[in-house]
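Dear colleague,

Thank you for sharing your sequence with our group. We've completed the structure prediction you requested, and as agreed, I am returning the results in plain text so they can be pasted directly into your records. Please verify that the sequence below matches your submission; if there's any discrepancy, let me know and we will rerun it promptly.
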Amino acid sequence: MEFASSSLCQAHKVALTRQPSPPVNSCSLGSVSVIGFSLPQISSPSLAKCRRKQSSFSSVRACVAVEQKTRTAIIRIGTRGSPLALAQAYETRAKLQAKHPELTEDGTIHIEIIKTTGDKILSQPLADIGGKGLFTKEIDEALINGHIDIAVHSMKDVPTYLPEKTVLPCNLVREDVRDAFICLTAASLAELPAGSVVGTASLRRKSQILHKYPSLSVEENFRGNVQTRLSKLQGGKVHATLLALAGLKRLSMTENLLLKANRIACRTDDDKMATYLASLNHEETRLAVACERAFLETLDGSCRTPIAGYAAKDEEGNCYFRGLVASPDGTKVLETSRKGPYVFEDMVKMGKDAGQELLSRAGPGFFGN
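Please find the predicted structure tokens below.
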């Protein structure tokens, strides 16, 4: 399952290791991961505007570069090499430097690019590759082995169960959790003619699209970074796609095309990193992610299971949670919701209870496993 840009808000993940000492409460760094939900989509500009700006899709460049080590780094941040992953790592660095003046000197924080299994295998849909942590395993291994000090992930990529010896001491403020509809010829999915092909590597998005618009087709192996997918769209490989609005905002690409939570992890025995990261925690996001992950854990979700979960604070200050499971072909969709105090224990209980309800309603074989 994925914490998608539409629901389980995306959050940067930072992991660390600590020395034996009182546990550090996990916190969430930016809402980079959210389980996908059918929240209102953000549409691309009008057709005329899209046509005028078609070339801008392919010309977008990542304004990030990995600096060379010029001195011994105090903190080594591990991340993937995509423009979005780098943008999230640089955001994490900037927040650390804003909170801790001793980290502002050049070279104090070094960003290390690590290639993951998901980055290496691009010829297959993620569900066909199988396994857990396709975009996190190698980074977490580098963390556990002491090659890096913290790991920055999107929450949607983080497995339900954290690797041993790692902890999540913080979550950043959650970004916009909606999906952005991108198309050169239509303003929404409803306007696409029958037979149109929508590209997405997300089973959650696929099932929701097919459930509501069965006349459309979905290209599952529509993978690559944001720029690659926009290039494929412009080249006519698909007629439309859905992208996380949070990611587009982090790449400063919303102007042309019309968030999720980031998780930061560290080793459980690294009190120094835990302290640094705890200073970045956004408590509201941390609690929302805890509720969503309790839901996911109960359902034992994976990249083969279309699941969506989204927790947020309502106008009265309570937690409102919505959960969804769907069959991969979109023919069956089950939804539920919960409301209760915006308190850790209550929110975890809500997530688990919602998951148990949907498990019972779905019955064996619902996901086609």
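Summary note from our side: The radius of gyration is 20 Å.

Kind regards,
the structure core
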